[in-house]
Write a structure and sequence with these properties.
The structure holds two protein chains of two kinds. Chain A is of the alpha+beta class. Chain A has seven helices and four strands; from the N terminus they run ααααβααβββα. In chain B, helix 9 packs across helix 10 and helix 9 crosses helix 11.
């Protein structure tokens, strides 16, 4: 399906829903990997909003990307509970090689078994440097 | 060959935490060995996950390699009957009564364990008597503010405008908290029943559950449960909406803006969301744990709930023990247990085996408490009196390797990263706070900068600043943020910062009391 046709399908699926902008943006990002300027224009048109309003929402939330991310994304929790269990040493290790995109998240809700990370929808707990190397090695 | 009729039934949780610890592989190994595997909710003993239950006896934490020994009866990972384990036996589980016992998406299991009884009684009694019952329970908002739930419901019930909405705040962003996630993944119908009771009480036809995007498993379970529960809650309807990674959306007005498809900026109050909330309509916004407590209250009576607790904090609190702790997990108990008992006895001290130095209570906006505070009873008022808060009842334990000035800096940095930008004390104060703390950590004073040296600037110091000046500046900034911010993000960030500064001054360049005494 072409990009505009796919976008139309998403917009049609949410037509008439109350407060549909976030669900639309989630769907667009899930399909295309990011929310492009063209997509912002099409969404604005469909919802009778200005592009500035749509872009304001896209840029407000950490989840939405305006450009594609070619590398695999590892969401690493760096909130207090994971800090208390030593996540900062892991974060330094990940930054060093740059093979994966490391996104900091504040809390995956597994605070008693950290340090934790999420790749896609798969969670990884009780991370050690060795387990992290295996995880990253399998992605890059 | 194994007799099919003799197949062993093994119960393993499919909670996200169990999955993260490898529960799927362990479950597959039991299945491959000919067992019948039931995926149930988590008991909440996280250090034992993946935990397998066979005829009431527990084995954990299990690896795939442990499975043959467990089945042969030679495993050394047995913990005996789970229900008799001290961690479970010493709890008072109201909200988590079904934890570990039911399959989360089984309507049959839910009904067999007392599900829908609260909603049925609420429908018999009618809306006014339902609110009176919740009032009698003394239930206070579990999101952190502790506002009496029944008063909020009364305001919405009496509001003339229609339609009305029920919004469940499931944007559990605080580090050290996971009780909302465990409710949604382990007992989703209980939350839906609680929302249906609230809807019946106030006259709402539609409910939204706003779940953070970091919880994909909770989202999937709640979506399935909302669909499956439709015949039980009709004409009320529940829809799941997904957040997009903004911590501030856990603040109720910001959450409402986000649900409306806007930037998650905080709204000034008044108007109260109870009168002008979602799409400008009367709206009940309650936390997951608040709504999840309601079915029990309606089924067993408000008085039974209020019998448990301490002072003005009635009922039970699902406390989350996390961070560097030996026995972390979900511990539901009546208010009034002391902090020390939770950390040292229930939690077993640190996982690293080093001494406990600090416990942050109530998430990233909660205060850091030294062991000197371990006598504090766990209730809203006692923690407020000790310059702290219980928030969503998460405890994050730190050992003695923690640098408290780094934690104070992190609190300001977190506020800067997550500020919605609407009010100045939070938006700018957090960044200035990071800078001041950096100077304190470097133990460097500084001379007046180019702007401060201008003759037009009358209120800035012209002389060089020392460490004491910088600390005074940080305290002053915290006062400004506390009283000048629109919501709890900017308003409560001073709690971790000031508690770190005042309770652990030796990490901010001050001579510790011990060192002074030695001189």
């Amino acid at each position: 399906m072409t990009e505009p046709a796919e976008l139309d399908r998403i917009l049609a699926a949410h037509a008439g829903r109350e407060g549909s902008l976030l669900p639309i943006l989630h769907d667009v990002q899930a399909v295309f990997g990011h929310v492009s300027e063209a997509a912002e224009r099409a969404i604005a048109h469909a919802l009778n909003l200005s592009r500035a309003e749509v872009h304001g929402v896209v840029s407000f939330y950490h989840d939405f990307r305006t450009a594609p991310e070619p590398r695999p994304v590892v969401k690493l929790c760096r909130a207090e509970s994971c800090q208390a269990r030593g996540v900062e040493a892991l974060a330094a290790r990940l930054r060093a090689d740059g093979l994966v995109k490391v996104e900091t998240v504040y809390c995956l809700g597994l605070c008693s078994v950290g340090p934790n990370a999420m790749v896609g929808d798969t969670l990884h707990a009780r991370l050690t440097p060795e387990k992290l190397d295996v995880l990253v090695g399998g992605l890059a | 060959m194994k007799d099919v009729g003799m197949s062993t039934t093994v119960r393993i949780s499919d909670d996200a935490l169990a999955l993260a610890c490898g529960a799927d592989a362990v479950a597959a190994a039991f299945e491959a060995a000919g067992c019948t595997v039931e995926r149930v909710s988590s008991w909440g003993m996280h250090w034992l996950e993946p935990l397998a239950e066979i005829d009431g006896a527990g084995f954990g934490p299990l690896d795939v390699a442990d499975v043959p020994a467990v089945l042969a009866g030679t495993s050394d990972k047995g913990i005996g009957p789970i229900a008799d384990h001290p961690f479970i036996a010493s709890q008072q589980r109201f909200t988590f009564a079904r934890a570990g016992k039911t399959r989360p998406l089984s309507l049959e299991d839910y009904a067999a364990h007392g599900g829908w009884a609260g909603l049925a009684r609420s429908r018999e009694m009618g809306p006014e008597a339902t609110i009176a019952e919740v009032m009698a329970s003394g239930l206070r908002g579990r999101g952190g503010a502790g506002f009496p739930a029944a008063i909020k419901w009364t305001t919405v019930a009496k509001a003339p405008a229609t339609p009305k909405y029920i919004v469940c705040n499931a944007d559990e962003g605080d580090s050290g908290t996971f009780a909302d996630r465990m409710v949604m993944e382990g007992d989703p119908f209980m939350l839906i029943e609680g929302m249906a009771i609230a809807a019946h009480a106030v006259g709402a036809a539609k409910g939204y559950v706003y779940i953070r995007s970091e919880y994909p498993h909770a989202i999937a379970k709640m979506q399935a449960a909302a669909q499956a529960a439709r015949p039980h809650i009709a004409p009320f309807e529940v829809e799941v909406r997904v957040g997009a990674g903004a911590y501030v959306c856990g603040e109720e007005t910001s959450l409402l803006n986000s649900l409306e498809g806007k930037r998650g900026e905080v709204r000034a109050k008044p108007p109260l969301p109870a009168l002008e909330g979602l799409f400008g309509q009367p709206t009940v916004v309650n936390n997951v744990l608040t709504l999840a407590a309601v079915p029990w209250i309606m089924a067993n009576g408000g008085a039974a709930y209020a019998d448990v607790g301490f002072g003005r904090s009635k009922g039970t609190m699902p406390i989350q023990i996390a961070g560097n702790v030996k026995y972390g997990g979900l511990y539901e108990v009546g208010f009034g247990i002391t902090l020390g008992e939770l950390v040292e006895v229930v939690g077993g001290g640190t996982a690293s085996g080093r001494p406990v130095r600090a416990v942050q209570v109530g998430g990233p906006l909660g205060a850091y408490h030294p062991p000197a505070d371990f006598h504090l009873p766990f209730d809203y008022e006692s923690f407020a009196a000790a310059d702290g808060l219980i928030g969503h009842a998460g405890l994050t334990v730190f050992d003695d390797s923690v640098d408290m000035s780094a934690q104070a800096r992190f609190a300001m940095q977190f506020c800067a990263a997550e500020s919605c930008g609407k009010c100045t004390p939070c938006r700018l104060g957090s960044t200035r706070g990071v800078e001041v703390i950096d100077r304190i950590r470097a133990r460097q004073g500084r001379s007046a900068d180019a702007v401060e040296s201008l003759p037009q600037i009358h209120n800035a110091k012209k002389r060089a600043r020392g460490l004491a000046d910088e600390i005074a500046l940080l305290e002053d900034l915290c006062e400004t943020m506390k009283f000048g911010s629109l919501c709890a993000l900017g308003g409560f960030t001073p709690y971790p910062v000031l508690s770190a500064l005042r309770r652990f001054p030796e990490d901010f360049g001050a001579v510790s009391a011990d060192a002074e005494a030695a001189e």
